[in-house]
Write a structure and sequence with these properties.
single chain, about 325 residues, alpha/beta, Rossmann fold, CBS-domain, 2 domains, 5-stranded parallel sheet, 4-stranded mixed sheet, 12 strands
Length: about 325
């Protein structure tokens, strides 16, 4: 038996950095090899998922199960309904989660995982299509699969060649490639992505102006011929620090800010709103991304702006403070 202390004192032992570099190079090269030689059934697998009437059901045992869970989450978040079913639990009632309208994407590096037996038999019995991911094309899993996504048989990245490393990286990369290919074929757009990611930083970055703006009776608006006393009253009551100025048709033609008040202090109360307003102000449309509106406010050095329709009818006020509070940066 090898002496652990002798191995620890070996001058040829790799440093932690050398080990990390070796692992990353090996796994990176493996991904490049896969990119240059995708499984021949890859395109057919994308088409099968696109045409599915039900969900994509993923399953795998051990490390393959962890990867399957992640692929299921990626598919679900990009517009493809999907779930993970544990193969052992499937044998104890969870097979009922799988319907004839579903597709099963089953992962096993060897293709001989015992716990997958009942799930494979169930799918074959009810003619549920199986997409298999394995490095052994002649395995039990791949013989049962309608479509085979065969991985290149490359060495694991660990020094012993045993710990699932390169194989799991390849599987995860292939799953990501499958999910994104399906997403792009669906023409999945940012607004769809927002629906599945309403929380956190990502949800905030994908928010639209209409979701953060103030609207309705709270809008501070006065006509161009209104006395400045009315304009200041609107600014005070709304608390937005600005007042919109409209023409006789209700279109926004200008904005009065605190800065405009300071620049027009002389004879201010004898003037009309249209005389004091900054004309042709910066505005945004309701469907503008909130992140884009924040960038606009930063560039123009304003802390609030009006949201207008195509005919410049004011429908809201967006404040920089509200965007920052919502997590838009």
């Amino acid at each position: 038996m090898p002496n652990p202390s002798a191995q620890a004192d070996s001058p040829h032992r790799a440093t932690p950095v050398q080990s990390a570099e070796r692992v990353l190079r090996n796994e990176g090269n493996a991904l490049l090899s896969l990119a240059q030689a995708l499984p021949s059934d890859f395109d057919a697998a994308v088409r099968l998922i696109l045409n599915a009437q039900g969900r994509v059901v993923l399953s795998g045992m051990g490390k393959s199960g962890h990867i399957a869970r992640k692929i299921a989450a990626t598919l679900a978040s990009t517009g493809t309904p999907s779930i993970y079913v544990h193969p052992a639990e499937a044998s104890h009632g969870d097979l009922g989660m799988i319907t004839p309208q579903d597709i099963c994407l089953v992962i096993s590096n060897s293709g001989e995982t015992t716990e997958l037996g009942d799930l494979l038999a169930y799918c074959l019995r009810f003619e549920i299509p199986i997409i298999g991911i394995s490095k052994r094309d002649d395995s039990t899993l791949m013989r049962a699969a309608a479509l085979r996504l065969t991985l290149p048989d490359l060495e694991e990245a660990c020094a012993l060649g045993m710990a699932p490393t390169t194989s799991t990286t390849l599987t995860l990369g292939l799953g990501d490639a499958l999910a994104i290919a399906v997403m792009e074929q669906r023409e999945f757009r940012p607004e769809h992505f927002r629906s599945f990611h309403p929380g956190g930083r990502l949800g905030a970055q994908l928010a639209k102006v209409t979701q953060l703006m103030h609207s309705g009776d709270s809008l501070p608006l006065v006509g161009a011929k209104a006395p400045m006393a009315d304009a200041i009253l609107q600014m005070t009551e709304s608390g937005f620090g600005i007042t919109g100025v409209t023409d006789t048709q209700g279109a926004l033609i200008g904005v009065i800010s605190d800065g405009d008040l300071r620049r027009n202090m002389v004879g201010l109360m004898e003037r009309r709103a249209g005389d004091v307003a900054t004309l042709s102000p910066v505005t945004v449309a309701p469907d503008t991304a909130a992140a884009e509106a924040v960038a606009l406010m930063n560039n123009r050095k304003v802390y609030a702006l009006f949201v207008v329709t195509a005919d410049r009818a004011p429908v809201g006020v967006l404040r920089l403070h509200d965007c920052l509070r919502a997590g838009v940066v």
